[in-house]
Design brief:
The complex is a heterodimer of chains A (317) and B (326).
Chain A: E1 9-20, E2 23-34, E3 38-42, H1 49-56, E4 64-69, H2 78-84, E5 85-88, H3 100-110, H4 115-128, H5 144-158, E6 162-166, H6 174-189, E7 193-198, H7 201-205, E8 210-215, E9 218-223, H8 225-233, E10 239-244, H9 248-253, E11 258-263, E12 268-273, H10 278-287, E13 291-297, H11 302-316
Parallel strand pairs in A: 3-7, 3-8, 5-6, 6-7
Antiparallel strand pairs in A: 1-2, 1-4, 8-9, 10-12, 10-13, 11-12
Helix pairs in contact in A: 3-4, 3-5, 4-5, 5-6, 8-11
Chain B: H1 2-7, H2 16-29, H3 31-55, H4 65-71, H5 81-97, H6 102-106, H7 110-114, H8 120-154, H9 160-190, H10 194-223, H11 231-245, H12 249-261, H13 270-279, H14 290-321
Helix pairs in contact in B: 2-8, 3-4, 3-5, 3-8, 5-8, 5-9, 5-10, 5-12, 8-9, 8-14, 9-10, 9-12, 9-14, 10-11, 12-14
Classes of the chains: A alpha/beta (317), B mainly alpha (326).
Chain lengths: 317, 326
């Protein structure tokens, strides 16, 4: 941690390795998570995301390489790491026979939170995830979304500097997912660095500042969603055109910068260009007498990046 | 393993207190505990009731009459309180421990709890100690109930040495429960399914109660010579038979309890008792002082405690190596 440039990293992994027998579950990955960002670990199931997380928490041993969390080594100083890092495991469980409050009291005791602060911190945390009114209900009656929120409440109560969430949105309905993502943004607003692992891309895309794409134990791609899109889908400004009355491909072909015009369903085309051609395209269509009904810049979607990447990867393999 | 322990920082007992308190309150408030206590009381109360009725009619003087409540059977029910406990304590301990670790795993609470600042050591030890404390509470309560019933129905207060022997008996009973608790927890660490671990613990329990005496008998018979030539031969055969039987924790418990509650006991095994009496000029039937009785059962007590520690250590090692992920 002597390098001042790295001082803002909360998690640093260098050549991190995990072997199960001869299988490389995590194959020498390098990873930096910065303070206050939401970082997404993406990839298919079994790509090594959860193993990476468990190594960061010191819950499983590393086979090689190094990892530092908030300047502590999770292998040698797991207690220091676990005191400062909140973890929401994949399909989190609570003690069903206890109430939400009692579950948190147990964790507060384990965290050694002073007794006179405990109740206030629990209620504050439950309030932050909108569970304050069911604080004394048994967790057995909670829905999956409520359990996930209780898991977030635990992280809030812990006042963690880093939150690691493993598949937090899996199995949630759209509304619950939306609420949960809002709470994750809330964590970020409080200065918590958040690490999310997921295979649900469109949802994660909306909250992540940066993502890493895992593939067979390696990080295949890392960066912002736009960077990844440029890398995998090619740089450019894809736009969507919906028009009728004219031969749209013919009208757009001549525009400088347009590389491809691909049909995208009935009366819609996808235009790939190396610059923003929206103004010119609109002009051409209208000039040719066409009725332009839609002209939109296509946001690069993580889903697309992901699908394309793994298609290419499979073809290469 | 050791290398790893040497490298890591922080006390392995961090978080032990909260785990212990939480598990203890879970045990004491659970329905399962109620059911187990009910079992033990029914199984314990029957022999005690019959024995007490019989003891009320005893006319000859017996300086350890009070202790007979625990050890004596009756005509109507050839089962003493101690024999009932020998059978019931394992069930109680298994009931408390068979799902200690795997239920956390199945409820998916294990990784969440282990991501708090505590080592696995504290979790396992806290669970074990809380089980042991629950056993101690249950057995002490039972012991006091029997003691009280004795006071009421015999109308005779126990003397100091009898109380002391009673307490020694309680300690032995808790240690015996600890062995079975460690067995149950070991299975709960090994098997992910609570049903499998319960089945294995109960299977082992039945094995030691039903099969093992027969196997020990068969082995001893195999070693029996056609004709005994010396006293030593008889004695050594009895030693072999005892050594085999003592592999079962139930035997150790029973010997220790008989040793402390029946002060006349001077050695274990009929023939050994006879030889002891002959060679040391002791009169059969005279009681030993308390310290001599304790000395006599010391190996049994250490055996039980050592067994408990070894089993716990194995569970600990298995648990350390287990992956927490689903």
């Amino acid at each position: 941690m002597s390098d001042p440039l790295k001082a803002d990293n909360v998690i640093e992994a260098r050549g991190l390795l995990k072997l199960y027998g001869s299988a490389r579950a995590v194959d020498s990955i390098d990873l930096d998570i910065r303070r206050g960002e939401i970082f997404g670990l993406l990839g298919p199931n079994g790509a090594g995301k959860t193993t990476t997380i468990l190594m960061m928490l010191g819950l499983t041993e590393t086979s090689g390489g190094s990892v530092e969390v908030l300047g502590f080594n999770p292998v040698r100083q797991p207690l220091e790491v676990k005191r400062r890092v909140g973890y929401l495991p994949d399909s989190v469980g609570f003690y069903d026979h206890l109430s939400a409050r009692e579950n948190l009291v147990y964790i507060a005791r384990l965290l050694d939170i002073p007794r006179r602060e405990t109740q206030a911190r629990i209620m504050e945390a439950l309030g932050a995830v909108q569970l304050a009114d069911v604080a004394d209900k048994r967790v057995a009656t909670f829905s999956r979304g409520m359990r996930q929120r209780l898991g977030i409440a635990e992280i809030v109560m812990k006042r963690a500097e880093v939150a690691i969430l493993d598949e937090p949105t899996s199995g949630l309905d759209p509304h619950a997912t939306f609420e949960l993502l809002e709470m994750i943004r809330g964590l970020k607003r409080n200065g918590v660095a958040v690490l999310i692992s997921s295979h649900l891309l469109d949802r994660v895309q909306s909250v992540c500042d940066r993502v890493a794409l895992f593939n067979r134990g390696k990080i295949a791609l890392m960066g912002t969603v736009v960077e990844l899109a440029n890398e995998v889908l090619g740089a450019g400004h894809p736009i969507l055109v919906e028009a009728s009355g004219i031969d749209v491909p013919a009208a757009l072909k001549g525009i400088e910068g347009v590389q491809q015009v691909l049909p995208e369903g009935e009366g819609a085309w996808r235009v790939v260009a190396d610059r923003d051609v929206r103004a010119v395209a609109a002009q051409r269509i209208v000039a040719a007498g066409g009725a332009l009904t839609r002209l939109a810049e296509l946001q690069p979607s993580l889903e697309e990046v992901y699908t394309r990447y793994f298609e290419e990867d499979r073809r290469a393999a | 393993m050791l290398r790893k322990l040497g490298r890591r920082e922080g006390s392995p007992f961090t978080g032990l207190g909260p785990v212990f308190m939480k598990e203890l309150s879970d045990h004491l408030s659970s329905t399962r505990m109620m059911v187990l206590i009910l079992f033990v009381i029914v199984f314990g109360a029957l022999p005690v009731g019959f024995t007490l009725q019989e003891l009320r009619n005893v006319t000859q003087s017996d300086q350890f009459l009070f202790l007979r409540i625990f050890t004596a059977g009756s005509e109507r029910m050839p089962l003493s309180f101690v024999m009932a406990l020998n059978f019931m304590i394992p069930l109680l301990a298994i009931g408390l421990g068979f799902d200690a670790v795997n239920s956390e795993f199945n409820r998916r609470t294990l990784s969440r709890v282990l991501s708090q600042p505590l080592y696995r050591d504290a979790l396992l030890l806290g669970k074990f100690l809380s089980g042991l404390a629950t056993l101690a509470v249950a057995l002490s309560a039972l012991f006091l109930i029997v003691f009280g019933a004795g006071l009421l129905l015999l109308g005779l207060p126990p003397r100091g040495p009898e109380v002391a022997r009673g307490i020694a008996f309680l300690v032995v009973a808790i240690a015996y429960g600890g062995v079975w608790l460690a067995v149950a927890m070991l299975f709960s660490v090994i098997f992910r399914s609570t049903a499998t671990s319960a089945l294995c613990s109960l299977g082992l329990w039945l094995f030691f109660f039903i099969l093992w005496p027969m196997i020990a008998q068969a082995i001893t018979t195999g070693f029996t010579p056609a004709q005994f030539r010396t006293v030593d031969e008889v004695l050594s055969l009895e030693q072999l038979s005892l050594a085999l039987a003592r592999l079962s924790p139930g035997t150790l418990f029973f010997e220790a309890v008989v040793g402390v509650l029946s002060p006349e006991t001077k050695a274990f095994g009929d023939f050994a008792n006879l030889v002891m009496a002959q060679t040391r000029g002791m009169i059969p039937g005279t009681p030993l002082p308390l310290d001599q009785s304790l000395l006599l059962i010391w190996p049994q007590i250490t055996g039980l405690i050592a067994g408990m520690i070894v089993l716990f250590a194995i569970a600990y090692i298995v648990f350390q190596r287990e992956e927490v992920r689903a």
